[in-house]
Amino acid sequence: MYFDSHAHLTEDCFAQDFDTIVENMKAASVTGMMEIGFDLPSSEKAVQLAERFSWVHAAVGSHPDDAAQVDEARIAVYRELCKNPRVKAIGEIGLDYHYEDPPRDVQQRAFRLQMALAQEIDLPVVVHEREAHEDGLRIVDEFPDVKGVFHCYSGSLEMAKELVKRGWYIGFTGVVTFKNARKAVEVAENIPLDRILIETDCPYMAPEPYRGRRNDPSLVPFVAAKIAQLRGFTPEDIGKATSENARRLFRIEEGK
User: How far apart are alpha carbons 92 and 10 in whole angstroms?
Assistant: First the structure.
């Protein structure tokens, strides 16, 4: 019923109780998940996890923090990883200007190289964009054939509407459940339901009432429940709709 569109379940903090987490996911009706790479080692682990479990699918790529490592050689490695049918997206890629380390020009080059790879091999992308709204939208517009999701969305409703017009999806984490999450709530209330994805971004961003604790995919129904409350649906309605959205974006056949 529920599809966690952005998780980092291969992080070390899950090693000791991984089997318990999987059981908790089943109990919570979480039946699909995207394991997202953020550098080369995590991308390789994502593919390995997707090969191990039929309900896990992988994205490979370099987060802005890893932008300095993205060159033609790294792109060649990602291109090879993408030959595996378990890889459904390039990500997470993008821009993060909160600390500006690596510098903006380095991040932008890495973002463009990975967008170009996605265009070349016809895969969607998972975009991390923080405090870089104008540059993020500008680079997206340079690759009109590439679509994807702005995960853990932190921009304005106006920008979200522009992305939706371009055929993009908007991803919501547990942040939408926070009391001070005015922007995320406004976006979740007003964009088309067929453009919404739900995610944990685990081990980060745990929803209320678990805020501040380690997050995991079994908690993604709390994100669905909050959006259901905002939109006047049941959590199951939102779970079904967002699962269909994720499978459409990542081209995952039902039951796989």
Answer: 15
Whether the CA torsion 132, 8, 42, 86 is positive or negative: it is negative
The pTM of the full predicted model, rounded to 2 decimals, is 0.97
In this structure, the chain runs to a length of: 256
User: 3-state DSSP call for residue 80?
Assistant: helix
Nearest of 243, 199, 240 to residue 222 by alpha carbon: 199
59: tokens are 């994205």
- CB 198 within 8 Å of CB 220: yes
Instruction: Please state, in angstroms and rounded to a whole number, the distance separating the CA atoms of residues 69 and 51.
Output: 26
Dihedral (CA of 72, 46, 170, 134) sign: negative
Q: Encoding tokens for residue 241?
A: 């709709």
Asked whether residue 254 carries a pLDDT value surpassing 90, the answer given is no
Q: Which single residue is written with the structure tokens 């499978």?
A: 247
Binned at pLDDT 50, 70 and 90, residue 65 comes out as very high
C-alpha dihedral sign at 145, 45, 86, 160: negative
Listed in sequence order, the residues at least 6 apart from 191 whose beta carbon sits closer than 8 Å to its beta carbon are 157, 160, 161, 164, 170
| Rounded-to-integer distance, Cα 178 and Cα 248, Å | 28
Residue 94's φ and ψ, nearest 5 degrees, are 145, -145
pLDDT band at 154 (very low <50, low <70, confident <90, very high): very high
Q: Flag whether pLDDT at 107 surpasses 90.
A: yes
